[in-house]
């Protein structure tokens, strides 16, 4: 998930190295009723096979599916073949974007320094191999570089006051050959430079503790040197893909003209197998497509998997931007499944961008009450592939568990952390919610998405991530 405001988007939080906040439940629901599952709910959920979902996750999470890589391309082929095996016509929609390739090697070596160093990279950092003397350059301001001679040297600077990119550019313009930025508080430092800049020079990050120890070494050892090695980092044009399988209405005569999109993103972050983020959502989408293929319906249902979500919702933005205004008006709902299977995450919530109920949350409210006796928690999130749909005026919401698991965006996001119980719960809730709207016997006025009166907000649990 990029993934992503969950007040600050997950994308932005990852970029600045922020910790992921936990959720606060503000208001419990009042005692209510539990409707019995009817024959249509049963049709939608009875064929769901959670083992198939789990096996899809196992296949997809063998390696990190970083956008624009061969592994993501293999995921595209896998999804296309699976959708086609269910009998769908499938569209593979390519798109280009300017992206960053993470380095394959990051090293920092300081002769005579007896502590092990664990350097990190900055997204959009550049490759290079630099051996030079070390100089303390304060916080890396222009004034700092006026007081020290950084020409041909590696500047050691502290995080704070202005961006990482500004610090590196200031060092570059002062003639420095490389930069080490250390954290201003406890812990490791992760960050982004925001984009490519021809003035950038090789730079690595250190924790606060290691940075302070390195400066102590520099003061005690005049003329101390370091070697920075960054290999494989580059910025350039990349290609990713969206995969869309379409279930057409069973009868053209009874076609309402409405479209429901069930979506998820297929990519993961570098280094993370992405079993939960987001092989889980992708695999539930696949299973829903299989289960719903032959259900009689008067509504078009699209099963979509988006690429390059982790880089800023690029695939879903491309998909929505390519729609005509007529097509946008036909889409009445977007169900976005992102991180729906971690055993270590909290409870399920359905989150709209503004935290307000809409058609998606209304249908989910009804189906989860039938299945579980209480509605799914209502939340607010501005980070994931439901955002472009919301921005186009389409009711949309994210299905996710909160608080997030501790393995989020790490190499530990693996198959053994997946809960079949959570997968099945989400699959059943979404299937029942979608089919409640799409089935033949539940006719609705054509294209009334903006005139719907949703269930009052007070009827939900409210949850906001702040």
TrEMBL record:
Residues 130-214 form the PA domain. GO terms for molecular function: carboxypeptidase activity. Gene3D superfamilies: 3.50.30.30, Zn peptidases. Keywords: Carboxypeptidase, Hydrolase, Protease, Signal. CDD domains: PA_C5a_like (cd02133). It comes from the Bacteria. It holds the Pfam family Peptidase_M28. The keyword Acyltransferase does not apply. SUPFAM superfamilies: PA domain, Zn-dependent exopeptidases. InterPro entries: PA_dom_sf, PA_domain, Peptidase_M28, Peptidase_M28B. Residues 441-466 are annotated as: Disordered. Residues 242-433 form the Peptidase M28 domain. PANTHER family: N-ACETYLATED-ALPHA-LINKED ACIDIC DIPEPTIDASE (PTHR10404), VACUOLAR PROTEIN SORTING-ASSOCIATED PROTEIN 70 (PTHR10404:SF46). This is Zn-dependent amino-or carboxypeptidase, M28 family. It comes from Bhargavaea beijingensis.
């Amino acid at each position: 998930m990029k993934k992503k405001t969950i007040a600050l988007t997950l994308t932005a939080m990852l970029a600045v190295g922020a910790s992921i906040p936990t959720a606060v439940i503000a208001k419990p629901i009042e005692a209510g009723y539990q409707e019995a599952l009817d024959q249509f709910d049963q049709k939608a959920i009875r064929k769901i096979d959670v083992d198939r979902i789990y096996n899809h996750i196992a296949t997809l999470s063998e390696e990190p599916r970083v956008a624009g890589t061969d592994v993501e391309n293999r995921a595209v082929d896998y999804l296309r073949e699976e959708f086609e095996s269910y009998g769908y016509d499938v569209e593979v929609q390519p798109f280009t974007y300017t992206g960053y390739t993470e380095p394959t090697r990051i090293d920092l070596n300081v002769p005579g320094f007896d502590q092990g160093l664990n350097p990190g990279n900055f997204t959009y950092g550049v490759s290079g191999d630099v051996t030079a003397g070390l100089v303390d350059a304060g916080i890396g301001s222009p004034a700092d570089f006026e007081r020290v001679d950084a020409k041909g040297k590696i500047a050691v600077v502290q995080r704070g006051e202005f961006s990482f990119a500004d610090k590196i550019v200031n060092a570059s313009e002062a003639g420095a050959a490389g930069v080490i930025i250390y954290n201003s508080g406890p812990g490791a430092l992760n960050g982004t430079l925001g984009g490519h800049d021809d003035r950038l020079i090789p730079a690595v990050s250190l924790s606060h503790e290691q940075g302070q120890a390195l400066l102590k070494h520099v003061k005690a050892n005049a003329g101390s040197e370091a070697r920075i090695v960054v290999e494989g980092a580059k910025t350039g044009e990349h290609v990713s893909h969206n995969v869309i399988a379409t279930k057409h209405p069973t009868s053209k005569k009874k076609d309402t003209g409405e479209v429901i999109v069930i979506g998820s993103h297929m990519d993961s972050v570098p280094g993370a197998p992405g079993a939960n983020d987001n092989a889980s959502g992708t695999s539930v989408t696949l299973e829903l497509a299989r289960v719903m293929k032959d259900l009689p319906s008067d509504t078009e249902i699209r099963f979509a998997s988006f690429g390059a979500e982790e880089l800023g919702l690029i695939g879903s933005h491309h998909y929505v931007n390519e729609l005509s205004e007529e097509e946008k008006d036909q889409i009445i709902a977007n169900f976005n499944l992102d991180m729906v299977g971690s055993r270590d995450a909290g409870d399920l919530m359905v989150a709209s961008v503004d935290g307000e109920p809409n058609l998606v949350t209304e249908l989910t409210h009804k189906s989860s009450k039938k299945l579980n006796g209480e509605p799914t928690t209502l939340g607010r999130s501005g980070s994931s592939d439901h955002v472009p749909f919301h921005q186009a005026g389409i009711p949309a919401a994210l299905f996710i568990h909160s608080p997030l698991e501790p393995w989020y965006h790490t190499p530990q996001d693996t198959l053994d952390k997946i809960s079949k119980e959570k997968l099945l719960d989400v699959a059943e809730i979404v299937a029942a919610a979608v089919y409640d709207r799409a089935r033949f016997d539940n006719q609705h006025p054509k294209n009334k998405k903006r005139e719907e009166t949703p269930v009052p907000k007070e009827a939900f649990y409210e949850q906001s991530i702040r």
